User: What shape does this take?
Amino acid sequence: MPEPTRCEPGTPAGEGEIPLCVPHLDGQEWAYVRECLDTAWVSSAGSYVDEFEAKLASRVGAERGVATSSGTAALHLALESLGIGEGDAVLVNTLTFIAPANAIRYTGAEPIFVDADPDTYQLDVDDLEGLIEDRFEEREEGLVDPRTGNRVRAIVPVHVLGHPCEMGPILRLADEHDLAVIEDATESLGAAYEGEPVGSLGDVAAFSFNGNKMITTGGGGMLVTDDDELADRARYLSTQAKDDPVEYVHEEIGYNYRLTNVQAALGVAQLEQLDDHVERKRAIAARYAKRLAELPGVEPMPAAPWASPVYWLYTLRLDPTRADVDRRTVHERLERAGIQTRPLWQPMHRSPAHGSEREFPAADAIRDTALSIPCSVGLTDEEQERVLAELEDALRSQGRGSEP
Ligand SMILES: *Cc1c(COP(=O)(O)O)cnc(C)c1O
Assistant: This one.
């Protein structure tokens, strides 16, 4: 473990430092939370929970929303409500934060990892198709992984970093092989694929309102779907599977996964600012893209032609054949200047907690060269200029600065 330093990711930035991605609370948060406290509606029942569920679902084009204590809980409930469990397998990006892989494991199912698209960093549809068409077998009981005998039941496309996955081919493959599609939209609230908002594209989707996401409730999540039965089932499981609220009869084992009214009050206030957050993130991304293009060996964050990304976490790549400086050096240098940056997650196939026998060259290459840089909604132009100046310095002084 490296020595923790002042600007270590995951620790609050100090005075004068520039954090990676922090909450921005600039609306009715105080008023709505105050109302919860004044009326003592602070727990998991209350009008803000209903309002937040209705407004978020409607915002992403879904019929129903079930608020949860976290995005991970929403993913777990989505999988469980679809009846996925022991003896099943679920396809998911290898290049992702660990939560969706963990949620698959909670159900007893096996995550099967899919490589990253080198152009978008999202789930690679060619690798997905190769797995489904070449490695799995269509049998009477459905699509089966012959190595394990597990039934392949679902795909979890994780829209990473605020950019959608290429949903057209994913939905086609799912349809052809009778697979459920659970969007992990936790990083991409507000983004769209061919004009359709993420969260409305699959059978069910999960959002997160953790502190660093597009909007925050401190901690929290939501499952959204058009499927009433699935939403009812998820709500039932999220409240300890209570069958009789008077007699406390439970026919199944459930969870305590509800969001509180205080958190939902924050959520309603934050949702009112989502358009502003998206607009600001896009403006930050546009400035970075323009200026980074002038630097040797730097690739700005990608955006596919069919995507309307929200640039949740602005992530550049350093081309090792053109920039002499690697992402670790740039990270350390910016850290010394009080600027927080972060590498991408260890891909799941390399994670000691998960792993895989297959190789994932694209995910490895992205992970080795990518660096996320400050992009909070509240980042000022002056702060962004400071980040750019340090990046320019780091790349010009160590890289081949004379190259275009
Ligand atoms: C943040 C995140 C989650 C989980 O959200 P929590 O609310 O922190 O549980 C799930 N998947 C991905 C890809 C995430 O980035």
